[in-house]
């Protein structure tokens, strides 16, 4: 766990795995039900990993409102998790609202989605270390872990940052989110170093899922083997 003097909170932004509402870019290669099951597998696997790492708290920031009981049923570690509903608005507004509420109880926060479930532990630890160091620094810190598609798989913030200004008017799902946020952070006077060594893939399209499965099949890690087995229902022949 993290230091009590510099608590770092992990917040997982996620939707309820309902058919037709999640992982829709995997369709029609997968059915709506299969795509939703992929999302659920990613969610359970990712949260389980985070619970075993250095974060002082893990928060599930969920959508839609009112779905907390369903999430508690899905997540086997539910009794050890905190749950909070996502605010209204675009992703920037939802992230800013969650950041403002969670930074009140911590010195640093790291946002995650669930689309990069096999990120190596060393890369997660790098982000944690950067946020922990930033929590003691004089200037606000923004820590971004890039994805190959121009987005990011983790966003770290420290308590003195103006989350609303950082996250407003970002063109989400444009493939330029990583660069937009770095530029915005710089304009706000934040320390936001580029971290190419933290880069990893996310899974949005059928080709991404096929690549993940190949990577998992070659890995010798027990965690990767568990994820590979949990995805056994995915029809490989439909991903090419």
Architecture overview:
The chain has helices spanning 32-51, 68-74, 91-103, 121-134, 163-167, 177-187, 206-218, 222-230, and strands spanning 8-15, 57-63, 82-85, 108-112, 142-146, 152-158. With 240 residues, it is an alpha/beta fold. The protein has a six-stranded mixed β-sheet with strand order 3-2-1-4-6-5, sandwiched between helices. The radius of gyration is 17 Å and the shape is globular. It is built from eight helices and six strands.
Topology:
Elements lengths: L7 E8 L16 H20 L5 E7 L4 H7 L7 E4 L5 H13 L4 E5 L8 H14 L7 E5 L5 E7 L4 H5 L9 H11 L18 H13 L3 H9 L10
Parallel strand pairs: 1-2, 1-4, 2-3
Antiparallel strand pairs: 4-6, 5-6
* Shape, principal axes of CA atoms: globular
* Individual helix count: 8
Question: What share of the residues lie within helices?
Answer: 25-40%
Q: Structural class, please?
A: alpha/beta
Largest sheet: 6 strands, mixed
Poorly predicted parts = none
User: Secondary-structure element order, as H and E?
Assistant: EHEHEHEHEEHHHH
**How many runs of DSSP E, i.e. beta strands?**
6
Proportion of residues in β-strands: 15-25%
Strand order of the largest sheet: 3-2-1-4-6-5
Q: Between the first and last Cα atoms, what is the distance in angstroms?
A: 41 Å
Radius of gyration: 17 Å
Mean pLDDT: 92
